[in-house]
Amino acid sequence: FLHTSGTTSRPKGVPLTQLNLSASVQHIVHAYELCSSDKTVIILPLFHVHGLMAGLLSSFLAGGTVILPSSGRFSATKFWDDMKTYGATWYTAVPTIHQILLEKHKAKPESSYPNLRFIRSCSAALAPAVLQQLEEAFGAPVLEAYAMTEASHQMTSNPLPQHGPHKPGSVGKPTGIELAILDDSGRLLPTQQVGEVCIRGLNVTKGYKSNPDANK
After folding, report:
1. I need a surface site. Which of 54, 69, 72, 186 has the fewest CB within 10 A?
2. The whole model's pTM is what?
3. Rounded distance between C-alpha atoms, residue 131 and residue 78, angstroms
């Protein structure tokens, strides 16, 4: 099992089955049309679902190439060297890392950047202004996604450009799951109404480990 990030409370243990993981990586591969020619440098820890599922296992399923950072961890000064050396076609990161790369670009831009199919952002909200700056700086569409450990990572994502517009400030549409916005009574809400995000799918855990109260 993996642990939640602890965004809303203390981290909770989440049991994930082989079926959960398999379904999740299939959804990710389908959403981004990952294939054997794709290459990515993983700059996120593999003990959380973002790096593990979106970076590593989805690439394995697609037959793509995974590169670990030459410095052994994320380094803004070496990231683009690694990306260019191995001909990476995409990468996924949290907004904080995107911001670091953007600030480095503003201070000392690279002579050139790799030709990326897309840049993925997940695990926290990405400010629309930052998304626009990333696209202008690195010449690739930035696709924001929405994920949680309980869903073996990805639940929604903005589409690749050939499948429709990607909207700054939006997490896109469901990828392989059923999703609804419900009120406190469990009733479906109309559009433009605030409620609770509820999901159902093969990638969703059956419950937290040793935490019956959280499973209610």
Report:
1. 72
2. 0.92
3. 22
